[in-house]
Automatic annotation (TrEMBL), chain A:
Record localization: Cell membrane
Name of the molecule in the record: Fe(3+)-hydroxamate ABC transporter permease FhuB
Membrane-spanning segments: 31-51, 72-93, 105-123, 135-156, 162-182, 252-279, 291-313, 319-339, 366-384, 404-426, 438-457, 463-483, 495-518, 538-561, 582-604, 624-642, 654-671
Keyword Cell cycle: no
Organism encoding this protein: Methylobacterium oryzihabitans
Pfam families associated with the record: FecCD
GO biological process, one term: siderophore-iron import into cell
One term under GO cellular component: plasma membrane
Record keywords: Cell membrane, Membrane, Transmembrane, Transmembrane helix, Transport
Automatic annotation (TrEMBL), chain B:
Function description: Part of the ABC transporter complex HmuTUV involved in hemin import. Responsible for energy coupling to the transport system.
Keywords: ATP-binding, Nucleotide-binding, Translocase, Transport
CDD domains: ABC_Iron-Siderophores_B12_Hemin
Gene3D superfamilies in alphabetical order: P-loop containing nucleotide triphosphate hydrolases (3.40.50.300)
Protein name: ATP-binding cassette domain-containing protein
Source organism, top-level taxon: Bacteria
Ranges for domain ABC transporter: 13-249
InterPro entries membership: AAA+_ATPase, ABC_transporter-like_ATP-bd, ABC_transporter-like_CS, P-loop_NTPase
Organism: Methylobacterium oryzihabitans
Listed PROSITE patterns: ABC_TRANSPORTER_1, ABC_TRANSPORTER_2
Transmembrane segments: none
GO molecular function: ATP binding; ATP hydrolysis activity
Family to which the UniProt record says this protein belongs: Belongs to the ABC transporter superfamily.
Length: 678, 266
């Protein structure tokens, strides 16, 4: 059964039009909106004014007039301009993709721009003669292209777009973290800047952002009519004579340019682009013309107010919080708030028409896979490298090396197996091939727990660290389950809830990281999955967790067989739907939390392994699970081996290495499946 | 717990004062009706009349609103999910994508309410699957991937899954909506044959009044959330009744060969 993209896209447009009102109603909405803006502006101006007052009163400061003129005032202007630019970009993206959740941060655009700048500064500090903005724009464009390419086949179904954006964003963030980690101290400030600090030293950024915003706004105003038509589905808009592909590309480019220049000037600022247009819509403004004015104004004021609050906190505590991370802290709750408004997003028949082949004798392929894993394990144990080249460890060396290599190999393989198993569960449960434990938010929560522990007690031993990570994962899991229950356990909403949780944990992590120092480096190392030494106890824990979760899931395979058919069919077959989903989600989240301890929060194995197993023809739940686990083990064993050999004498973090394998896989998947449905 | 003895005596479904509201709209407005067992009942009515809402209530796919539904005399909500699935099989209007599953595997899923999560898929289960494939004439493509079948074949396969479920009552939500007229006849003939052979009770939503009149024993017509007409096809296929159902002037014509009655807008 295929569902024509038109009708689905039509339902997608619905939530935004929920607040249909008559013209007098429109006037009332406009009045309400104006009042809100006036209030926000007043508060923001008050806070910034207080900051300026405090600075002027500070008699001990010799340069106080200069600070006000060249730092505080431009900072307020930059906050306004950046907020407005991000909201305009968000509003355009939401309109073009017919997705109320689209935004520079949910699409991974901001993270892509950030990565591009970090990479450029790490490898070519003079940026090869290019401006910082051009580099940021290239990164933003690449990330956007990747996300949209990944989801083109699903006709940009909103949940899939956000999930893909989250994945791309995660990879970019972990790659940036790795670069910072290896680039040493001088790049750490870059990480802070990634948190979106609005501190200014001159009027340059304010000027350039202002000019770009004005130009982009004018262009968007010129495209007002096509924007209105895009609320129809493609067939409808095309039928009215709109060159859809060209208009859509132009608007997307405009949004990406806007977001990219904000990143280049002040770093990554989450949430504003998502919140402002949606808030404006919730207030009843619905025509593109009204939104074109309202969204940037509201966004600018929100960021101005947030920055005022952040500055006030800074004055009190001398913390120097990055504003962007603080706004991102608000993103999680806001996403959850938006969830009930997405009732029209049921992925009915969102599956693709092409059916992958299914294996007649899956066990034969399984034996082959298992053989490959065994070979990889043996290679991982005996292969090493010194200055002359590859070295095979003999029996005597092996006795020496085994205590080093075995726990690490066992831990990463168990982590890979658990991630693969949870990915398999999530993909079957949500019938979404992009679902993966990385986006569940549980590993993000685990990182947050660990970071808190490292921050509070840097000298604490492994047990305390593992314990606090587990505690963080547990709290994250509880939050996720609560969200999932509230969202009636609907697949796509569960994913979005997980993403919101992940965004929250990530923002918290960034706030912690801004303190810098040794603790920050320790946390960074862990985020990138640097498992250079693994405690045997941790390895045992991971293996036990892997065995337990896989055994439990194998017992529940019949549920997994029925669930991909959707809630309706599962209910009709007498499946205890709520209980089944809660149990499966709990197992998946626990396994993800434990695996995050060994391979770090991001590795892509949970996305890749079930996907590979599926396209290899493992259709039934049991086969799919077994295939995913075998592939997950193999991938991690391979990543472990390569991460030791390739960059000798350094060791790459295993998790990062796995995501470096994963990223090309994703891109390859995009290129291979480039279909006509755009 | 399954009361076989008084099966024929009690009504299949007994509805009393069913009201459902959603988003400020009344979807069902005081439905009271008895569905008789062992018959094929067509549910008809214009778009938005509440047909699907009613069917989803009967299939326990939606939380019940006000009013009471009894199934064979028992409170509908009190039956355990598995027990209910053994007695009532439901085919949603849009059958879900099956992702590379083979016909045989899909039909075997119909046995879930019987073997459950951990039970053995035994000889009896295999027998039922084979029988379902045979009775729906889908045995020939049992090894094929479901997604590769044509619309009509796929609908037959889903019917086979419902049969494998071995329930005495089938609820079908527009099983013919995506099919051309030849396949509509094909699927509905199959439904009627299956119902007659196995003594099944069938409640089926149909868009086409003439199809309903031709294949159903009873017809229930909904309009604006109420029952506006009910009875045998002969009782419903009258100019005044059709006008009440569709709000249009309708004419009827008795076909010379078969004696079937067809209605058409004037």
């Amino acid at each position: 059964m295929t569902c024509d993209p038109g009708s689905r896209a039509g339902t997608v447009a619905d939530p935004s039009r929920a607040g249909c009102a008559s013209p007098p109603g429109d006037r009332a909405h406009a009045l309400r909106f104006a009042c809100l803006c006036a209030g926000l502006a007043g508060l923001g101006a008050l806070l910034h004014g207080l900051g300026i007052r405090a600075m002027l009163d500070d008699a001990s400061h010799p340069l106080r007039d200069l600070v006000v003129l060249h730092s505080l005032l431009p900072r307020a202007i930059v906050a306004l301009a950046a907020g407005a630019a991000l909201s305009l970009a968000g509003m355009l993206l939401q309109r073009v993709l017919r997705n109320p959740l689209a935004d520079a941060s949910t699409l991974g655009v901001a993270a892509g721009a950030h990565l591009a700048i970090v990479a450029a500064l790490a490898f070519a500090p003079d940026l090869g003669g290019l401006s910082r903005e051009a580099v940021a724009f290239a990164g933003a464009l690449a990330a956007a292209a990747l996300v949209l390419g990944l989801t083109a086949r699903q006709a940009f179904e909103p949940t899939s777009v956000v999930v893909a954006g989250m994945l791309v964003g995660l990879v970019c963030a972990s790659a940036s973290a790795a670069l910072v980690l290896y680039g040493g101290q001088y790049l750490t400030s870059l990480f802070l800047w990634g948190g979106g600090s609005l501190a200014q030293q001159d009027w340059g950024p304010a000027e350039s952002l202002g000019i770009r915003l004005a130009l982009a706004w004018l262009l968007a105003a010129l495209l007002l009519r096509p924007l209105a038509l895009l609320a129809l589905d493609d067939a409808g808009a095309g039928g009215l004579g709109l060159p859809i592909a060209r208009i859509r590309t132009a608007l997307l480019l405009l949004a990406v340019v806007l977001a990219g220049s904000v990143v280049a000037q002040v770093g990554v600022i989450g949430f504003v682009g998502l919140a402002a247009p949606n808030l404006a819509r919730m207030l009843g403004l619905r025509t593109p013309r009204a939104l074109l004015v309202a969204a940037p104004v509201l966004g600018g004021l929100i960021l101005l107010l947030t920055d005022g609050i952040v500055q006030a906190i800074d004055r009190g505590s001398r913390l120097a919080l990055p504003t962007g991370a603080v706004t991102a802290l608000l993103a999680g709750p806001f996403l959850l708030l938006l969830l009930p408004r997405l009732s029209g997003l049921r992925p009915i028949a969102s599956g693709t028409t092409h059916a992958p082949r299914s294996l007649a004798k899956p066990w034969r392929s399984l034996i082959l896979l298992a053989g490959a894993v065994v070979v990889l394990v043996l290679a991982g144990l005996v292969l090493g490298r010194d200055r002359t080249g590859l070295v095979l460890a003999g029996p005597s060396d092996l006795a020496l090396l085994l205590p080093w290599r075995l726990p690490r190999l066992a831990a990463v393989m168990a982590g890979g197996a658990m991630l693969a198993a949870s990915g398999c569960v999530l993909q079957r449960m949500t019938a979404n091939p992009l679902a993966s434990p990385e986006v569940l938010g549980v590993s993000g929560a685990a990182s947050f727990g660990l970071a808190t522990c490292i921050l509070a007690a840097p000298a604490a031993g492994l047990a305390a660290q593992v314990g606090s990570a587990a505690l963080g994962a547990g709290i994250g899991l509880a939050a996720l389950l609560a969200v999932a229950r509230r969202a009636a356990l609907q697949g796509s909403r569960m994913l979005l809830g997980g993403i919101a949780l992940g965004a929250l944990a990530g923002a918290g992590l960034t706030v912690i990281m801004t303190r810098g120092g040794l603790e920050a480096a320790m946390i960074l190392a862990w985020i990138t999955g640097a498992s250079t030494q693994v405690d045997p106890a941790l390895a045992r824990l991971a293996v036990a967790g892997a065995l337990a979760s896989i055994a439990a899931l194998a017992l529940l395979a019949r549920w997994l067989d029925v669930l991909p058919l959707g809630d309706s069919a599962a209910l009709a077959l007498g499946l205890p739907l709520g209980r089944a989903k809660l149990v499966l989600l709990t197992i998946a989240a626990l396994a993800t939390g434990v695996s995050a301890l060994t391979v770090g929060p991001v590795s892509f194995v949970g996305l890749m392994a079930p996907h590979l197993a599926r396209s290899a023809g493992f259709v039934g739940a049991r086969g799919h699970l077994a295939g995913s686990v075998a592939i997950g083990c193999g991938l991690m064993a391979g990543a472990d081996l390569l991460s030791r050999l390739v960059f000798y004498p350094y060791q790459m973090p295993v998790g990062l290495f796995a995501s470096l394998i994963g990223a090309p896989y994703l891109i390859g998947a995009v290129l291979r499946k480039a279909g006509p449905r755009c | 717990m399954r009361r076989h003895a008084d099966r024929s005596a009690t009504a299949l479904f007994e509805l009393a004062g069913i009201r459902v509201e959603a988003g400020g709209r009344t979807l069902l407005d005081g439905i009271t009706h008895r569905f008789a067992p062992g018959r094929i009942c067509g549910l008809i009515g214009p778009n938005g009349s509440g047909k699907s809402t009613l069917m989803r209530l009967l299939a326990r796919q939606a939380p019940s609103g006000l009013g009471r539904i009894r199934f064979h005399g028992e409170d509908l909500a009190a039956i355990s999910p598995r027990e209910f699935a053994r007695q009532v099989a439901y085919l949603p209007q849009f059958t879900p994508p099956t992702d590379g599953m083979r016909v045989e595997e899909l039909v075997a899923l119909g046995r879930f309410p019987w073997h459950g999560l951990l039970g053995r898929f035994g000889a009896r289960d295999r027998e039922k699957v084979d029988e379902a494939l045979r009775r729906t004439g889908t045995g020939a493509f049992r090894g094929r991937v479901v997604a590769s079948l044509s619309g009509g074949e796929r609908q037959r396969v889903w019917l086979a899954m419902l049969l494998a479920q071995d329930a005495a009552c089938l609820l079908l939500d527009e099983p013919t909506s995506a099919l051309d007229i030849a396949h509509q006849i094909d699927v509905l003939s199959l439904v009627r044959a299956l119902g007659r052979e196995g003594g099944l009770s069938v409640i089926v939503i149909l868009h086409d009044i003439n199809m309903a009149a031709r294949f159903c024993d009873d017809i229930v017509a909904l309009g604006h959330g109420r029952i506006v007409a009910q009875g045998t096809p002969d009782a419903v296929m009258r100019e005044d009744v059709l006008a009440r159902i569709y709000g249009l002037r309708m004419g009827i014509h008795r076909l010379p060969g078969t004696g079937d009655v067809v209605g058409y807008p004037l």
